[in-house]
Structure formats: structure tokens, C-alpha cells
Automatic annotation (TrEMBL):
Known pathway: Amino-acid degradation; 4-aminobutanoate degradation
Catalytic activity, EC: 2.6.1.19, 2.6.1.22
Keywords assigned by UniProt, alphabetized: Aminotransferase, Pyridoxal phosphate, Transferase
GO BP annotations listed: gamma-aminobutyric acid metabolic process
A GO molecular-function annotation: (S)-3-amino-2-methylpropionate transaminase activity
Top-level enzyme category: transferase
Reactions listed under catalytic activity: (S)-3-amino-2-methylpropanoate + 2-oxoglutarate = 2-methyl-3-oxopropanoate + L-glutamate; 4-aminobutanoate + 2-oxoglutarate = succinate semialdehyde + L-glutamate
SUPFAM superfamilies: PLP-dependent transferases
Name used for this protein in its record: (S)-3-amino-2-methylpropionate transaminase
Pfam families noted in UniProt: Aminotran_3
Length: 452
């Protein structure tokens, strides 16, 4: 084992290093304790217990150093212990940990809101308020849209994911594991098709137009546009399998919303904060949402989420109608300021593009000779492969390939409505050599007929 480090962060040796099998003996012991203390509802992607993390590696209790292609589900875009985040949070924790912004406010909350108002798409007047999780941001966006429009219906899309609370699991498309057994669900939620190019029945070319026409037809006939408070969509479906809606689909939906007084909400919880090679994924097609929800990458892992939107919509809610004890906690706000500085000063938007430009050609080259790879897609550092039984579009289980990667010290995540998508979300600060090494491990793991 190389020299012990007492801190995480980018100064951790940036290397893959396996000193035991994965998971090692110490992790297995801890996992046994987890199984008796924590219910099985809380799953585990890779049962190695972490001591340090930073740059592009996660170090475990057995001394293994794994390559991280997950970023804690698109959270540690700036790394797991980014110096500007660490410094600000350390200072803040010694100054004060909490007052409750609704009781006695502090400047960092306001600064975060000002920055989000400026950074999110559109130069109209905006407001922002802060909450604790992605789900809470989405719930609040719906509350605001209902209040401002006086309407109730919410339209969501096939393959969408928006959270696990009662309303947000209702908004989520997939039953198992998110909804199964947890009903009854919230009322006034309606689901329409998503322009999913790889699986569109008539092929990818007419996908945008046909899917938009179907969605608009369903809204108009089944709900009535005048009853719809909000249309809610992820600009790239995350948990659903990194589905980029066919180009042209989102603009058509936005246009329909504008024409009918419907609030267009972009859920950028997974796609936000430089992840896709833009600060926000909506920028790719020039979409300006009425409300945008953010979380995950906003604060490097400290619990923070935000609702940002048109001032006239957010100002509609009566005084005291929004809030929560911890929303915009001072530690999380300092972390967010550290994250935003890091993205800007370390040029992480460009860095995300570079990651995409490194990964996509290699994955497409794999696709050429490996028929298990049905589709390669994504933008920036949000990249996926959709796996199929060779010669068909039958889903091939991604968990099997993920397990083979894990054994080799590469942490990858799965996704997809059919569980057949491997998704790659490396920290934007991952060094190139780890990116390349990870892709080589992946290439071998995808050769399912051979031993890795
Ligand atoms: N909206 C687009 O991706 C969270 C889910 C992890 P929270 N995605 C990761 C899991 O299995 O629970 C997510 C998202 C989009 C909303 C959310 C919800 O964000 O911070 O997990 O509540």
C-alpha cells in the first residue's frame, strides 16, 4: 500500500490499486453490520466502505483505491473534497452551524440565490429558494406552479425520475423499485410519451415530431391544456437511462406550454452544474425553463437543492408559504459557493466536454465490434451505453457488467427503465489516465464471452 494519506481530496494518489479482492475482508465485516442495522430497502451498488475520496478515486477500508465513474450519482462534480469547498465549510462549521434562514438569515444563502438567478438559462428576472434534496425541490416547484396558475394537473414523461416522496414517486415513471407497494399515489399526475430515439417504434428520424405530437394530443384530449399547471421534464432522463430526447422535442413542448399558460419545469437535479458540458443541460437546445430544479452537483455532497424561476411565479406565493427548517443550511451554502468558484476557476464546463470527447469515441469503437452495445449516448460527463442481447433490442442486464467492472476496481452505476444501461458520471476533475484506464476495464468487462 502506498503512503497513508490522512485526507481525501485531489492530493490522494490518483491510481487504481487493488490490494484485496473487492469487497475486501474489512468491507465484508462492515457490510454484515449494515445488513443487521439498516433495512434492505436501502440498497448498495458496491459494498466497499469508504475512508477517503477525491480526484477520480475512492479509497476503501481495506486500502483499495477504485476509479470512480459515479460521482455519488452526479454529485461530486468538483470532486469529493474539493479544496475551496473544504476550506469554506471548515470555516463555517466553526462560526455557526445553523440559525434557520427563516428565523435569522445569513448572507451566503442570498449569495447562492443571486448566483443561481444569474447562471440559470434566461435573462428575465428570477427568484430562488433553497431546500434540502432534489425531491423537495421538485415538490416545491409543483407547489409554486399550482399556486401561480390556479390549476392542478401536472404532466410528466415516460422514463422520468423525480424522487421518492409521495408526490415525486408519483411523478416518477418506473414502478420497481420506486413505487411498488407504496401507493396510493398523489392525484392529478399524468404521463405522456418521451422522444426516446433508440426505442421509438418508427425509428429515430421522426421521433421528435411524433412523440411531441402524441404528448400534446394526450394533454389536450385527456386533461385539457387549460387544466395543466405544469409540464415537468428532465432535459436528459437520468435514472431512466440517460435518454436524450430527440432534438426538437423539447422546443416543441416548450412552445406548447407557452401558448397555453403552462409552467415549463426543467428538472436539472442530475444534469446540472457543468455535468453535460453546459452549466445546465437546457442550454444545449436554447431552452429557457419557467422554473428549474437543481440539487446534487450544487454543493459537492452537502445537502442542498434549489428552485429557481420566473419572479412573477415565485413571488405569487404568500409570505411564509414556502420553507423548511434546514433549507439552505449555512454549511451547504458555503459548499455551494465553493462549488461555483471551482466550476468557474477550474473551467469544469470545458472539462466535462473534454470527458465526453474522450469517452464517446472509445465507446463507439467498442460498439463497432461488440454487439452487446446497442446504443452509445450522452453529453459531456453524462455518458451511457444501452446494452442489448446481440442482434435484438432485448435488454441485456447491466448489473452483470457493472459487477465485472467493480471486481476490477472501477465503480460504475446502472440505470434504465429496463435495467440495461451502464451510466458513467465521473467527477469532472478525474485525471485523463484514470478515465482511459476505466474505459479499458469497461471494454474488457463488456466482452461477456471472455474472462476479464
Ligand atoms: N430529479 C432528475 O435524478 C435523484 C436517485 C437515487 P434526491 N436521482 C438519484 C435514488 O435511487 O434514490 C433525482 C434525479 C432527478 C430528482 C431526484 C431526486 O433527488 O436528492 O434524491 O431527492
Amino acid at each position: 500500500m502506498s503512503t497513508a494519506t490522512t485526507h481525501g481530496g485531489p492530493q490522494l494518489p490518483q491510481e487504481r490499486r487493488l490490494v484485496t479482492e473487492i469487497p475486501g475482508p474489512r468491507s465484508r465485516e462492515l457490510f454484515a453490520r449494515k445488513q443487521s442495522a439498516v433495512p434492505p430497502g436501502i440498497g448498495t451498488t458496491l459494498p466497499v466502505f469508504v475512508t477517503h475520496a477525491g480526484g477520480g478515486v475512492i479509497v476503501d477500508v481495506d486500502g483499495n483505491s477504485l476509479i470512480d465513474f459515479g460521482s455519488g450519482i452526479a454529485v461530486t462534480n468538483v470532486g469529493n473534497a474539493a479544496p475551496r469547498v473544504v476550506e469554506r465549510v471548515q470555516k463555517q462549521v466553526a462560526d455557526f452551524t445553523h440559525t434557520c434562514f427563516m428565523v435569522a438569515p445569513y448572507e451566503s444563502y442570498v449569495t447562492v440565490c443571486e448566483k443561481l438567478n444569474a447562471l440559470t438559462p434566461g435573462d428575465h428576472e428570477k427568484r430562488t429558494f433553497l431546500v434540502n434534496s432534489g425531491a423537495e425541490a421538485v415538490e416545491n416547484a409543483v407547489k409554486v406552479a399550482r399556486h401561480a396558475t390556479g390549476r392542478q394537473a401536472v404532466v410528466v414523461f415516460d422514463h422520468g425520475y423525480h424522487g421518492r416522496t409521495l408526490l415525486t414517486m408519483t411523478l416518477t415513471a418506473k414502478s420497481m423499485p420506486y413505487k411498488h407497494g407504496f401507493g396510493p399515489f398523489a392525484p392529478e399526475v399524468y404521463r405522456v410519451p418521451l422522444a426516446y430515439p433508440f426505442r421509438w417504434p418508427t425509428g429515430p428520424d421522426n421521433c421528435a415530431e411524433e412523440a411531441a405530437a402524441q404528448a400534446i394530443d394526450m394533454i389536450s384530449k385527456q386533461i385539457g391544456a387549460e387544466n395543466v399547471a405544469a409540464v415537468l421534464i428532465e432535459p436528459i432522463a437520468g435514472e431512466g437511462g440517460f435518454i436524450e430526447p430527440a432534438r426538437g422535442f423539447l422546443p416543441k413542448i416548450v412552445e406548447f406550454c407557452r401558448a397555453n399558460g403552462i409552467v415549463f419545469i426543467a428538472d436539472e437535479v442530475q444534469t446540472g452544474f457543468a455535468r453535460t458540458g453546459h452549466m445546465f443541460a437546457c442550454e444545449d437546445e436554447g431552452i429557457v425553463p419557467d422554473i428549474i430544479t437543481t440539487a446534487k452537483g450544487i454543493a459537492g455532497g452537502l445537502p442542498l437543492a434549489a428552485v429557481t424561476g420566473r419572479a412573477d411565479l415565485l413571488d405569487h406565493v404568500h409570505s411564509g408559504g414556502l420553507g423548511g427548517t434546514y433549507g439552505g443550511n449555512p454549511l451547504a451554502c458555503e459548499a455551494a459557493l465553493g462549488v461555483l468558484e471551482t466550476i468557474e476557476q477550474d473551467k469544469l464546463v470545458e472539462r466535462a466536454r473534454h470527458i465526453g470527447e474522450t469517452m464517446l469515441p472509445r465507446l463507439r469503437a467498442i460498439q463497432e465490434h461488440n454487439p452487446i452495445v446497442g446504443d452509445v449516448r450522452g453529453r459531456g460527463a453524462m455518458i451511457a451505453v444501452e446494452l442489448v442481447v446481440p442482434g435484438t433490442k432485448e435488454p441485456y442486464p447491466a448489473a452483470e457488467i457493472a459487477r465485472r467492472c467493480h471486481e476490477q476496481g472501477l465503480l460504475v452505476l446502472t440505470a434504465g427503465t429496463y435495467g440495461n444501461v451502464l451510466r458513467f458520471l465521473p467527477p469532472l476533475v478525474i485525471p485523463d489516465h484514470l478515465l482511459e484506464e476505466g474505459l479499458t476495464i469497461l471494454e474488457k468487462a463488456l466482452n461477456v464471452d471472455q474472462n476479464v
